[in-house]
Specification:
nine-stranded mixed β-sheet; four-stranded antiparallel β-sheet; Alpha-Beta Plaits; disordered N terminus; alpha/beta; 12 helices; binds manganese (II) ion; binds (2S)-amino(hydroxy)ethanoic acid; about 425 residues; Aminopeptidase; single chain
């Protein structure tokens, strides 16, 4: 390794290679590519394995030491002068939504790798080691607990809970890790991290509307997920009189309307969504006997999020009573609102200012692995705009220039702490 830093500056004038970053994102997006220009790399699917393998190969080509922990989280480590110091970490996730975009998650992992590649090019030696992490099942789309890889690393969730999660076909997360060859041997968590930074597209419209390149993320709103099962009675759609029906889908439709009402009643700030529903037996001429659904509630303020959850339970009980239906109601996930470490937030803001990028403070509407990492390390996030604020959509897009800017800020923040 050459001298610490040939330019003599503390990394201030270093810039990443935006073309290389963009190409890595496009090469990764070819894995699980969808016809509409997005990606489908569900957690621990064959496509996720392919994306992981590509990331690991690139890390090894960059001379990074790769390890995989028992939750399948991948860590690529670049040595610093003092191996005893805890690492400064960047990271995000490689898994996607079924109709996901090229940048959600992938950007933060590729940006972390680009930071390593840039420092390698310059022969820049840091005092502490650096790491880039790819966390397991951030999306919570296949296995019903978002950010579970980082949550187990941070001690928020138990390993057994993480490995025991099942997808809708009954496959366990642990079995799928083994199937794709990512049931690692390294212990999960229980080690110090000096600081964690996550670069991510905003996934909302604010930066674009305000014409800012960098979002200095101060924190993340709270999130609760609920699973509801309504059970009525399957019956023939023809001879069964309307008054005597116990139609589970009718009850579910009242709950869907109530979720939307609850969101509007708790503005500003509330978000309320029913994104997953299964109707049984889902046959054209059978009155649905059972409906399974997931509800996603979000708000920056804990008390209001709690009130939204209480209103949902009341509405669900009323819908079940009205329809003569059995109700199973369970909260399955809670990520409390998070405030990021002031020093990390300042490092992001300074990185943007020193590079001359327009920036603004912002709170994240989406959950991220950074929410979990904030439990165990000083944490910050860097946002860049995405077109029309659209994400979790195959048309998700961002500009190479903005992605490059965010990665430059990530580099500066990692060197500054
Ligand atoms: O749901 C979220 O906010 C994230 O995309 N997992
Ligand atoms: Mn994400
Ligand atoms: Mn996402």
């Amino acid at each position: 390794m050459a001298t610490e830093n040939p330019s003599g500056q503390p990394g201030r004038n270093i810039r990443i290679d935006g073309g290389r970053l963009w190409q890595s994102l496009m090469d990764l997006a070819a894995i699980g590519a969808t016809a509409k220009g997005g990606v489908c790399r569900l957690a621990l699917s064959d496509e996720d394995r392919e994306g992981r393998d590509l990331f690991v190969r690139w890390c090894e080509e960059a001379g990074l030491a790769v390890s995989v922990d028992v939750m399948g989280n991948i860590f690529a480590r670049r040595p610093g002068r003092n191996p005893e110091l805890p690492p400064v970490m960047a990271g995000s996730h490689l898994d996607s939504q079924p109709t996901g975009g090229k940048f959600d998650g992938a950007y933060g992992v590729m940006a972390g790798l680009e930071v390593m590649r840039t420092l390698n090019d310059l022969g820049y030696e840091t005092e502490a080691p650096l790491e880039v992490a790819a966390w397991t099942n951030e999306e919570g789309s296949r296995f019903p607990a978002p950010m579970i890889g980082s949550a187990v690393f941070a001690g928020i969730s138990e390993l057994a809970e993480g490995l025991g999660l099942q997808d809708l076909d009954g496959n366990s997360l642990g079995d799928e890790l083994a199937r794709i060859g990512y049931a690692g041997e390294a212990a999960v968590g229980g080690r110090q991290v000096a600081a964690y930074f996550e670069a991510h597209i905003e996934q909302g419209p604010i930066l674009e509307a305000e014409q800012r390149v960098i979002g200095v993320v101060g924190g993340v709103q709270g999130l609760r997920w609920y699973e509801i099962t309504l059970t009525g009675q399957e019956a023939h759609a023809g001879p069964t009189p309307m008054p005597s029906r116990r139609d589970a889908l009718l009850g579910a439709s009242h709950i869907v309307a109530a979720v939307n009402r609850i969101g509007h009643e708790h503005l500003p700030g509330a978000c309320a969504t029913v994104g997953l529903m299964q109707v049984h037996p889902n046959s054209r001429n059978v009155i649905p006997g059972r409906v399974f659904m997931n509800i996603d509630l979000r708000h920056p303020e804990t008390e209001i999020l709690d009130a939204m959850g209480a209103a949902l339970q009341t509405a669900s009980e009323a819908a079940a009573a009205e329809g003569g239906l059995e109700l199973d109601f369970a909260e399955i996930h809670h990520s409390p609102a998070v405030v990021f470490d002031p020093a990390c937030v300042a490092a992001v803001r300074n990185g943007a200012e020193e590079a001359g990028y327009s920036h603004m403070d912002i709170v994240s509407g989406a959950g991220h692995d950074a929410c979990c990492m904030a439990e165990v390390a000083p944490t910050g996030m860097i946002f860049v705009p995405c077109a029309d604020g659209i994400s979790h959509n195959e048309e998700e897009s961002a500009t190479a220039a903005d992605l490059e800017a965010g990665c430059n800020v990530l580099l500066q923040a990692m060197l500054a702490v």
